[in-house]
Design brief:
Blueprint lengths: L5 H38 L17 H21 L4 H37 L7 H34 L4
Helix pairs in contact: 1-2, 1-4, 2-3, 3-4
């Protein structure tokens, strides 16, 4: 770490703070959605699935696509700008791997199910085990949100440690 300049450290601090801030903002939105919105549409399937429809409900697809994309860009920039700081690089890579695994899980399980629930709302039909499917989605979503929160909390001691390098 002897070859780290003050300007390099400043950029590392800035991008680490930005990604941490955006992660906490994202967590706030996830907590709100999990505690307020999800219980409403999972309460009485399929009648409440209308809440998921674009233009007629509170579809959050575009919001989450933009928010996650922005966050992942800042997360990658934090890794790039912290690369020369060994402990920060390693910790960021671990946290990003966990984050990435949850994003893959989101794209493989949560997103396809939401799309399916939206299709059911558009063309109501009898669907086997719908209450069980929505209950599973809701339960697994608690786990997913908890993992995202844990990752963001993991960024806090890293920020503290990187900021302590100036002293």
């Amino acid at each position: 770490m002897d070859n780290i300049t003050a300007s390099y450290l400043t950029r590392a601090e800035i991008w680490l703070c930005i990604t941490t801030l955006i992660y906490f903002l994202m967590n706030g939105a996830q907590i709100f959605e999990t505690l307020v919105f999800v219980p409403k549409w999972t309460d009485a399937p399929p009648s409440n699935f209308k809440l998921l429809l674009d233009g007629r409900g509170a579809s959050l697809k575009n919001f989450w696509i933009i928010f996650h994309s922005l966050h992942e860009i800042t997360f990658i920039l934090a890794i790039i700008f912290c690369w020369k700081i060994g402990f920060a690089r390693n910790w960021l890579l671990i946290l990003f791997a966990i984050h990435f695994a949850v994003r893959v899980w989101t794209l493989a399980f949560f997103a396809p199910n939401i799309i399916n629930f939206q299709k059911i709302a558009e063309t109501p039909s009898l669907v086997k085990d719908l209450a069980a499917r929505t209950s599973l989605w809701q339960t697994l979503n608690y786990i997913r949100v908890a993992i995202f929160i844990a990752v963001s909390i993991g960024l806090v001691p890293l920020c503290v440690r990187v900021f302590s390098l100036r002293h």
